[in-house]
Amino acid sequence: MEHRPGRPRRPDVDAAVRAATVRLVAQRGYDGTTLDHIAREAGVAKTTVYRRWDSKADLVLDALVDVLGEPPLPTGGGELRETVGWLAARIGDPAVHQLLVGLVGEAVADPAVRAALRQRIRQPFEDRLVAAWGAGAADVDLAFDVVVGSLLHHAALAGSIDTRVVDTVTEVAVRLLSGEA
């Protein structure tokens, strides 16, 4: 067994730090939240946060993955409607919305954040869609952009996402995934 210097890590600390991240980003926004604020809110030393995450974006992405959970896997049009509805509900949550908007804004200027978002959020879901629908990767990629982009945009400008929007976005995604578009 490999000896690791220092005290063993407390498993509850990661969860406390992620929860504090969600709360603070929801209250202050991405840009108004610092790792120091998060450490204070979580009740841990700043060094604890800095040792576990390389950057604020890494921590916010971990918090986002944690709060999103696993989406339902759509295998047909009806299930895709359920998945789009699930995503709309998540994006409609002010905390999730702030986490996503902050990371997307960071990804514009930072290729590492862009790659991490793709690897941790987008790619696992797209891989599942390719397998479930038998659709080409390019069609799934475009469908993902249409769904997530439309829902984020609508939530930002309208303040909420109603069932009509979910139904319409689902119809467009089904056409893309089935090769009808």
TrEMBL record:
Entry coiled-coil feature ranges: none
Keywords for the protein's UniProt record, in alphabetical order: DNA-binding
Positions of the DNA-binding region: 34-53
DNA-binding is among the record's keywords: yes
Source organism, top-level taxon: Bacteria
Domain HTH tetR-type intervals: 11-71
Protein name according to UniProt: TetR/AcrR family transcriptional regulator
Originating organism: Nocardioides panacihumi
Origin organism lineage: Bacteria, Bacillati, Actinomycetota, Actinomycetes, Propionibacteriales
